[in-house]
Amino acid sequence: MTVRVHLASALRGFSSGEADVELDPGDGATVQRLIRMLDERFPGIGEPLRQASSVAIDGEIIADAQYESVPDGAEVHFLDMHQGG
Amino acid sequence: MSRRHVNCTINGDSADFLTEDFTTLLNALRDEVGLMGAKEGCGTGDCGACSVLMDGHVTCACLIFAPEAEGRTIVTVEGLADHTELHPLQQAFLENAALQCGICTPGFLVAAKALLDRNPDPTETEIRYALAGNLCRCTGYDKIIRAVQDAAEQLRANA
Amino acid sequence: MTVTEDNPNTGYKWVGTHQIRPDGLDKVTGKARFGADLVLPGMLHGRVLRSPHAHARIVSIDTSDAEAMEGVRAVITGADFPDLVEAGRSTADIAVAANAMARDKVLYEGHPVAAVAATTRELAAAAVKAIKVTYEVLGHVLTVDEAMADGAPLLHDGMITNGVDPKPETPSNVAAKTTFERGDLDKGFAEADMVVEREFTTKPVHQGYIEPHAAVADCGQDGRATLWCSSQGHFAMRAYACTVLGWDTGRLKVIPAEIGGGFGGKTVIYLEPLAVRLSQKAGRPVKLVMDRDEVFRATGPTSGSRMKVKMGMTNEGRITAAQVWLAFEAGAFPGSPVGAASMCALACYDLENFLIEGYDVVVNKPRVAAYRAPGAPISAFAVESVVDELAKGIGMDPIDVRLANAAKEGTQAPYGPKMPRVGLIETLEAIKNHPNYQAELGPNQGRGVACGFWFNAGMNSSATVHVNEDGTVTVVTGSPDIGGSRQSMALMAAETLGIAYDRIRPVVADTETVGFNDVTGGSRVTLATGAAVVESCEKVIESLRERAAKTWDCEVDEVEWVDGQAQRSDGSQPPLSLGDLASKAGRTGGPISANASLNARGVGAGYSTQMADIEVDPETGVSRIVRYTTAQDAGRAISPQYVEGQFQGGVAQGIGWALNEEYVHGTDGRMQNQSFLDYRIPVASDLPMIDTVIVEVPNPAHPYGVRGVGEVGIVPPMAAVANAINGAIGVRMEALPMSPPSILAAVNDQS
Predict the structure, then answer these.
(1) Closest CA to C368 of C326, C328, C327, C330
(2) pLDDT, tens digit, 9 for 90 and up, residues C678-731
(3) In terms of Cα–Cα distance, which of B65, B57, B82, B80 is closest to B29?
């Protein structure tokens, strides 16, 4: 299973400049598991990822997405979304 | 404190209330008489949300001292409907979606009534200038103007 | 006029129709109760003492004289609220509390320092004057330039800029930096045939709602309170107020009053915790209402800014590179919308090479609050002006240039993910094909085009649907109705249930009588609260089918729900209406009711393209809007008249922002134009009819195809107006507002 996580430039300090990371989170993967795996690979990245208020999974932006499941082949972005007025 | 006793006519009824000399008509209507339709948007006569008719003239109630109401005839938004019938302006505002939040609506209805009472067939420009003293932040005025045009047509047809 | 994409779900009976809104009657007869309209027995009047200084340390506050005055029943200062710094709360919570009532420092003119409650308004005002505050006045900064300069006075000791690598060693007034980048800027600019680089400034503007903030709080001797206030979200008001008060949320009940405009500015608290604390101390209800002066001096405007935009374009109209630098005023505490502005700045375009940098800068002005697509209109002014200059430079029609670069389904957004199905191209074509685009222009008249983007939001909503004994249906939600959303809820419920619109009663309930709802804002209510309503209705339909099955003694899957009736699939029974089933609800399982609480999914982003025809008087610099046309993708217009209303309202605010609105501050840091006389918003005689095109590219992820419509309409107008002024008099305006004196100055500079 392959999931592609795109890291915004603010986070690339943790990944030594890598912008696109491929992970194999296994069956039943959730966003929470992705964060854990990313934090293991790039220590310290977990905190800002957890604080990102929304996650885009294959283009759909989901707020409070920690327990969202991530399907095989998904493209994932962590976003700081703004509420609007 | 000593308060002044004011007698006037409000929305067709004899009315009276007590007031300090420095109290505005707006606050007297809201606090003493209990008519909450007129709103304070600015307190300085710039927004028109407190518009009422005094002897037929549209006035910012926030700029009038309450004792000046003595002996006068006052009409507020609460006095526009007649028993079971809405005033054509009220009906036109509803049909034209001429309100969003509705806070400016009482003032606009009163000011529009004053306009149509004196000019039953105004042009779009005349409507816009007559209502330039009423601020609306929600609608961009488009549907308000259309509602006034519709109501004017209705009133002319009824006359 | 509506341009609708083919959608298998057209042919709705209620969605998309014109109806009288359910709260309309109360609003045209003066019966609707707004925030300042509640009166309670024994009610006291509150008044706030506010800082006269833009930046100062509070040395001492002496309230003893005020407390001894006639009619005064309570006096509060920052000491009457818990110290959240000491309690180790988050920076966000600390900022909310410090903004509601200053503790050690005042950070802007108007910052609350104390408050009183007295038996009359006049006595409260007199008591406030009797409070003695000693200040140590500090230097202040009023613009991003002043705040970012070396040696500038700092608002918050120890504030180190977030988002900069390596982390700065010295504190500054820059709270955070946001960066988005892709590709190779140098390569992109090298490929361009034309490059334009411009610097822009904008001033803070206020949301301008006609209803000042108002709250009535009634705290009992048991320490529990009820708060009545107008807001964009009573659950948010409850949460924020309890943060400031140091209360569990269960101690406070918030009842929503009708709201007289918000536009984002009423998603935050000001008076509410003060009213509650005063009421608690006095043991009586307290009403606190701002006057207009206070609204301007102490409530969130949106940011002023400095922006630099550099873009490159080929002679064929392709944008090859874009560089955007933004610095936004956050006001007294971090949190300007520069992040959203950064994400939206280039979101209309499919780009390979770009760099966007956004700085969140604190200044000694009121804390900014959200204002309709916060941040996006500001960066759009800059970007869309530069795109226009490039288009004119290469001699290409401004709509064709945008079509050549337009974002669409599959485009990678500047903030990362791929765009789902969106309608920018459809809005561009709607303007291009509109008769207004062919209208002849006269002397000193110019035409400007601009487009804009807003994400829209989903977030949390709850709804409950009850079927009454007579078959009418009550739809209960918790989203304050600013623009007519109660009607949209009723329309969607009517459509889903298959019954008449006037059999639906939509209600906005309080924090004790409906489940949690996030704020009414972010263009989310029709989508998210609508989704909760639709889901509840679908559950009700399931229940109705089960009850019909019981009545007919058959299986549930032999029952269909069609046009508001249960029908036996084999047609062997006459149908049972909602009314029939409701009247016998007790026999078939009890009252019929269902609820849904959800974190909305499937948000559809919104695009708008707008066209302004402006005539500029070269002698006076006065601009007249000759013609204005807006095309916006609504996904599906549930209530078309009110959708048009949202379009037109956003345009009117944008025009005010473009031409007249600005905060004027003296060098002493005090606002000088804090009234509607001098803070000039558009009036009826300033505007023509605003022509609207509702474009419908249904959001594939929503049952009715809804996209939020409230916000994106304010994103394009400033650039559309600037581009039109450029067409009219050949001057490229780089500063907002483009008021008569500034247009004259620009004309004179040029000649």
Answers:
(1) C330
(2) 999 999 999 999 999 999 999 988 889 999 999 999 999 999 999 999 999 999
(3) B65
CATH code at C649? 3.30.365.10
What mean pLDDT value characterizes chain C? 95
Phi-psi region of C704 (alpha: psi -120 to 50; beta: other; left: phi over 0): alpha
Give CA separation, C294 vs C267, C291, C371, in Å. 17, 5, 18
Domain B88-158, CATH:
1.10.150.120
- Domain assignment present for C166: no
Class of domain B4-77: alpha beta
* Interface contact B96, partner C, CB < 8 A: yes
Q: Mean pLDDT throughout C269-275?
A: 97
Pick C326 or C166 by higher pLDDT.
Answer: C326
CA C495/CA C508 separation, integer angstroms: 20
Percent of chain C clearing pLDDT 70 (strictly above): 99
> Does the CB of B18 have a partner CB in chain C at under 8 Å?
no
Question: Touching check for B136 and chain C: CB below 8 Å?
Answer: yes
Predicted TM-score (pTM) of this structure: 0.96
Cβ–Cβ gap A63/C599 under 8 Å: yes
Q: Domain spanning A3-79: which CATH class is it, in words?
A: alpha beta
Does residue C745 lie within any of the structural domains?
yes
Contact criterion met (CB < 8 Å) for C34 and B39: yes
Cross-chain residue pair C685–B100, CB shorter than 8 Å: no
C485 C-beta neighbours (distance < 10 Å), count: 25
User: What is the total count of domains within chain C?
Assistant: 2
| Chain C residues whose beta carbon lies within 8 Å of the beta carbon of residue B143 | 641, 644-645, 648
Cα distance between residue C187 and residue B140, in whole Å: 45
Which among C552, C574, C600 is the end of a domain?
A: C600
Same domain, C609 and C723: yes
- Chains with ≥3 CB–CB distances under 8 Å to C: A, B
